Amino acid sequence: MTTTPATPAEAVRHQIQGEILQITVDNPPVNALSTAVRRGLMAAIEAADAEPRVKAVLIVGQGANFIAGADIREFGQTPQPPSLPEVCNRIEACGKPVVAALRGAALGGGLEIAMAAHYRVALADAKLGLPEVQLGLMPGAGGTVRAPRLIGAAAALELMLSGRHVKAQEALSLGLVDRLAEGDDAVAAGLAYAHELLASNAPVRRTRDAQGLADRAAAQAAIDAARADTAKKSKNLFSPHRIVEAVQTALDKPFDEAMTLERQAFMACIDSPQRAGLIHAFFAEREVVKVPEAKAAQPRKLDTVGIVGGGTMGAGIAVSALDAGLPVVMVERDDASIARGRANVEKVYDGLIKKGRMTPEAKTAVMARFSGSTDYAAFADVDLVIEAVFEDIEVKKAVFKELDRVCKPGAVLATNTSYLDIDAIAASTSRPQDVIGLHFFSPANIMKLLEIVVPAKVSADVVSTAFALAKKMKKVPVRAGVCDGFIGNRILAVYKQAADYIMEDGASPYEIDEAVRGFGYPMGPFQVTDLAGGDIGWATRKRRAATRDPKARYVEVADRVCERGWFGQKTGRGFYLYPEGARTGQPDPEVLAIVDAERQKKGIVPRQFTPEEIMRRYMAAMVNEGAKVVEEGIALRPLDVDVTFLYGYGFPRFRGGPMKYADMVGLPKVLDDIRTFAKEDPLFWKPAPLLEKLVAEGRDFSSLNQAR
Ligand code: 3HC
Ligand code: NAI
């Protein structure tokens, strides 16, 4: 849909109400500070100063929000005047008291506008914050200069470095707002406050003169603490360090100079690849729910959930459903298993109680919505069933036959399988139109990703129901097609293979993990194997052994490790050693000896790999398979691959996802790498036709995000 951009006069209306000039920002959906809004605000403040009848000014947002910040869509384009700092400074310079009345989002540039006003009132639903850091940015319209003056360096740094939203009551106690107001009418609250200020002859009160930095020693101590913390926690990130230094500048320099330096640092953030990656992630996670079925069909009724299997996944899924407010019926094989299933669910809540994040009464209330049974008849009335039994197609088919027998017509029948053919599972029922894949990630109550796997015969309203379930559960859903491993595990298998080849050719698993961590992942692939349990991958490899291409290179190191019973953390040993249940592993010389023996067996002379080369191979494998997944329609768009990896596989968010990363590196370079590696192993490094096509046409993956 294309819309004509609003003119400044449309985006910002102003009208005189007695002695007060009311300025209304009207730029749906969230009143972002587009060029038109900035121009409109400038014109409105000029009008307020020029008009003698006006004694005070009120700024409000049209609709449910004040202002959600700068217009993110404008970043990366040529900046248009006036800049947001100019607008804020103009508001602050106004010769008449300016009140901002806040409701809904007052975020980023929105809060900076509010801080430039002279007085602030917030309704109960207001959420205030400086979330720029989450977009690879820093406040760039006076936030780093005004917030410390208003609420002190410590509180300002905490807000800017966390990016968290603050509710009205907390904003009042921090000093971000002057008062709270009842109801949901920001105009009425703002007008009442402005009238009161006029009646008491309240002066113009500029935040630039506020005294939050008066205790210099305290401010310096807060900055030092934030600097040390940021060096530790955000070493791969660009903007948090700039935020700390901007507050240092705010302390050391006069107001105007600090504003100028803030702007320079902000522009450096704008130009950073991290900003591009993080803003891509912001939009991608909003686009990912826009799938054809969800647009075409309304979801079915979804008030109750059934779960088959109360093991690792079944219990985690049960917690997700309970936390979404849904009643849950769990069915297990026998009494002992259902008792264990219930205990697995309770264990999660007991953990929360232990950490003080839940009361025992709240647990009792939640568990009242949970029931267990060994009889499938318990599913007679549920709207949706999720199967999470052993990963065995025959077991799953038998379960689906039972579900087909007992569930009411129209119930959604979902499987949590990681790899199995969902079309085949659907075919074991008389109602394949109701069967879908809901692939949760472990631990299911924590991990945000939910792959919604769409088999050939499923009806659109079932897909739509799955997206509705994800929303209720606060998951990030990605639509995937049926294939071995869907989007995530299929691509994982390929780059894991690349890691195995690098290992056999000369790098140790520890060097590979370190390179991957250096790229920004929290863990490397061998650490992940140890955490998940090496036996899971081993079972998959054995299952696939018969269908493996005998010409394809196969690295046996992991099998040798598993044959010794070294399954990772749970056995105290895997690729790493975990003495006395330690969670961080130590390199194991015996694993290195296994690797060496495998090399010798194949006559491989080990060579050196730099971290950079490791990552080039790792990422080329990931991107190439990602391109195949998009081309085959397993993922709708490249951005679906990105979101899968951001939310399910620990891909560093500041890089935007593998496909965005490839765009930023440049697709010709990635393809060049693949062609170079193909000289060693043409079977593995076969360039994806889509990648070749995009390079030939001078396009990138993002062109496909817009196309669908
Ligand atoms: N600019 C442009 N579009 C924005 C936007 C922004 N700042 N914030 C939200 N949108 C768009 C979304 O993309 C979405 O568009 P779509 O309907 O086409 O998908 C629409 O507004 C609604 O957004 P949500 O789906 O996220 O709606 P919610 O109600 O769930 O959340 C929100 C609303 C809390 C405001 C959330 O959108 C949000 O957190 N927005 C970003 C806020 C932010 O980061 N502001 C700082 C910007 S940087 C800045 O201000 C720099 C300054 O310091 C100079
Ligand atoms: P698990 O072994 O922990 O639990 C399986 C449970 O199913 C057991 O409690 C068992 O008693 C029960 N069960 C077996 N047959 C049953 C039947 N006929 N009726 C009722 N209950 C039955 O297994 P886990 O790890 O929870 O995996 C379950 C499914 O989830 C598998 O398909 C797996 O591939 C998938 N999955 C697993 C992930 C993981 O990381 N563990 C991640 C994502 C999906």
Automatic annotation (TrEMBL):
Source superkingdom: Bacteria
Boundaries of every 3-hydroxyacyl-CoA dehydrogenase C-terminal domain copy: 485-578, 615-699
Domain 3-hydroxyacyl-CoA dehydrogenase NAD binding: 304-480
A single BP term in Gene Ontology: fatty acid beta-oxidation
Pathway: Lipid metabolism; fatty acid beta-oxidation
Location relative to the cell: Peroxisome
Main location class: other
GO molecular function: (3S)-3-hydroxyacyl-CoA dehydrogenase (NAD+) activity; enoyl-CoA hydratase activity; isomerase activity; NAD+ binding
Catalysed reactions listed for this entry: a (3S)-3-hydroxyacyl-CoA + NAD(+) = a 3-oxoacyl-CoA + NADH + H(+)
Keyword annotations: Fatty acid metabolism, Isomerase, Lipid degradation, Lipid metabolism, Lyase, Multifunctional enzyme, NAD, Oxidoreductase, Peroxisome
Pfam families membership: 3HCDH, 3HCDH_N, ECH_1
InterPro entries cross-referenced by the UniProt entry: 3-OHacyl-CoA_DH_NAD-bd, 3HC_DH_C, 6-PGluconate_DH-like_C_sf, ClpP/crotonase-like_dom_sf, Enoyl-CoA_hyd/isom_CS, Enoyl-CoA_hydra/iso, NAD(P)-bd_dom_sf
Keyword Lyase: yes
Identification of the protein by name: 3-hydroxyacyl-CoA dehydrogenase
Species this chain originates from: Pseudacidovorax intermedius
